[in-house]
Specification:
Length: 145
C-alpha cells in the first residue's frame, strides 16, 4: 500500500510539473491599445520586432492587420515569449496594403512606433522604441500623432 501511495504521489508531481511546463511554453499576450486613428477608415498595419537586428533590417517576427472601427484600435498578439519588443505601424487609410509616400519618399499616411518614439529622418532607434513584455502579459499604448 505504501508503494502504491508513493507511486501516486510521484505521478501527481510529474503531472503538475508537466502542466507547469505547458503553461510556461504557452507564451504570453501582448495587447496594443492604439489611439489617434482617423475614424472608420482603412486598416492599421503592425510589425512586431524582438531584436535590434530585426528592427534595423525590417524583419518582423510577426505582424497584424487591424480593421479600423472608430478612433481606437486594439490588436492582440498571443503566445509570445516574454522579452523585449518594438512595434512599427502605419495607418493604411486607403487600405491598399502599402504605406503611401509623396514624391520625396516621405510617408503620406500616419505612422507610429512603440513608446511613441520619434526618429529623425527615419524610424527611431531600437533603444527608444523597445519595451518589456512580461510573463503575465502586457498592455502597451501607442498613439498616432
Amino acid at each position: 500500500m505504501k508503494m502504491m501511495t508513493s507511486t501516486l504521489v510521484a505521478a501527481a508531481l510529474m503531472a503538475a510539473a508537466a502542466s507547469q511546463a505547458i503553461a510556461e511554453d504557452a507564451g504570453t499576450t501582448l495587447t496594443l491599445e492604439i489611439g489617434g486613428v482617423a475614424p472608420s477608415r482603412g486598416v492599421v498595419m503592425i510589425g512586431l520586432y524582438d531584436s535590434e537586428a530585426g528592427w534595423t533590417s525590417g524583419s518582423a517576427v510577426t505582424g497584424a492587420r487591424a480593421e479600423v472601427d472608430g478612433d481606437h484600435v486594439t490588436a492582440v498578439f498571443a503566445d509570445l515569449p516574454a522579452g523585449t519588443y518594438g512595434v512599427k505601424m502605419y495607418h493604411d487609410i486607403n487600405a491598399n496594403g502599402e504605406m503611401d509616400t509623396n514624391l520625396m519618399g516621405i510617408p503620406s499616411e500616419p505612422f507610429a512606433f512603440s513608446n511613441n518614439a520619434r526618429g529623425r529622418f527615419g524610424p527611431p532607434s531600437w533603444e527608444a522604441a523597445v519595451f518589456e513584455l512580461s510573463a503575465d502579459g502586457t498592455v502597451h499604448t501607442i498613439r498616432f500623432e
